[in-house]
Amino acid sequence: MREKIVAGNWKMNLDLNEGKELIIDIVDKGVNANVTSIISPPFTHLQTFKTMLSHTNIALAAQNCHQQDEGAFTGEVSVKMLKSVGVQYIILGHSERREYFQEDSLSISFKVNNVLKHGLKPIYCCGETLAQRQDGEHFETIRLQIEQGLFQLNELELINCIIAYEPVWAIGTGETASPEQAQEMHAFIRNTIANRYGEITANNISILYGGSVKPSNANELFACSDIDGGLIGGASLDADSFIALTNSF
Ligand code: 13P
Question: Half-sphere exposure of residue 46, counting CA atoms within 13 Å on the CB side?
């Protein structure tokens, strides 16, 4: 059985005090213990949250990392540093990083390698723009993102990756992919992996959907056979919504 996962990507929202209040609220109310719950706050909050979450089953993710362990890279944070404060997962290649910070699948693949080298798990994001979907290029776009970002890995490495499909046109727009559209792309991603690594490996990888997921649409999405949970933006900034999402399977 594949792992069911709900990961909250806070993006650049909430200062430390606001974040602590939200964590207290989430811990008090309690997430579904049968689901892997992950919270990904800004870097500045990680160490404090690690202490606050130490007696819970909520794991921490960072939203980015550098591909080197150390050196003259002003403003960057390495996987080694993130591991030292208790981070277990790292979101890589989010469309906002691809769009605003010029990341591409090849540069992200180096980060994937470094995350795995340190024994952490990458949450590798892929997704097409509205123009790419309208031009009928969505499958090819996703195939290339998966191949260029992940196919340098061997099977044992790939098995430690989580994939998040986030159509760019559905992020923060209130526009969600229909369960049919999302399932179709998740099955395509799994099939792309199966062609290279075999069915068994492909069937063991959790593929999350992201893009305007909220408690009102999560049940339908999470019920799809190739959707193993969600990478959640806006709805993860509210304790009741985040908890409801962990109960939406
Ligand atoms: P929203 O849930 O706010 O659309 O954001 C999705 C996302 O980008 C999660 O990484």
Answer: 25
Q: Of residues 94, 103, 128, 138, which has the active-site annotation?
A: 94
Separation of alpha carbons 85 and 65, rounded Å:
13
pTM over 0.90: yes
Query: Probe ligand 1: pick from 6, 11, 236, max atoms within 8 Å of CB?
Result: 11
Q: What is the pLDDT of residues 7-60, one digit of tens each?
A: 999 999 999 999 999 999 999 999 999 999 999 999 999 999 999 999 999 999
E strand or H helix that includes residue 157: helix 155-158
Domain 5-246 belongs in CATH node 2.115.10.20 = no
Whether 122 lines ligand 1, by a CB cut-off of 6 Å, is: no
Phi, psi of 225 (to 5 degrees): -65, -30
Cα–Cα distance between 72 and 239 in angstroms, integer?
Answer: 39
- What are the phi and psi torsion angles at 155 (to 5°)? -60, -40
Instruction: Return the domain boundaries, the chain.
Output: 5-246
